[in-house]
Design brief:
Layout (H helix, E strand, L loop, with lengths): L2 H21 L15 E5 L8 E5 L6 E6 L4 H17 L4 E6 L9 H10 L5 E4 L4 H6 L6 E5 L5 E6 L4 H14 L9
Parallel strand pairs: 3-4, 4-5
Antiparallel strand pairs: 1-2, 1-5, 3-6, 6-7
Length: 186
Amino acid sequence: MNRRRVVTALAGLGLTGASALAVTDRLPGLDGSDSALPLRVETMDARGSTAGQVRIPAPGAPTVVDLFATWCAPCKEQMDALSTVHEEYGDQVAFVSVTNERIGGTLSRADVREWWRTHDGAWTVGLDPESDLMSALGASGLPYLAVADASGEIRWTHAGVASTATLRREVERALESGSASGTPRS
């Protein structure tokens, strides 16, 4: 391998690593804190949701955060577990599903509402076109789940589809932890 190829390869690795850090908002000293949470997300009028804003995680309550997109087939599958667990714990736990899709062009609010209704969404649905929440959680794909305890500490995260039993177990753990803070688990 010649010297030029080695230098090019090393430069590429450096750029890739820095890009990954920037995308996940993990550059040291970027904002002087370890997390961008809590943050506010725009909410929309849909079944179980009203237009406005929501703080994530919810203050004083365990929170289930679901990152989804209307084009994402596994996100449709994830809605079954979310709906079941919401029916069981919706009065004790805040649920919020957030899409990072941009409204306008080929996707309208009506499209999101229709997807939401079709897949039995019945809790807060939010819009985050700049992917601030995705970045704050370090999510690199969809669907992505996070569970925070009542103090706002992220206790569990999961990339991909989580089963109803797994989601139920993590919600129970968040409820049991009360307002005690601890180390997040992945």
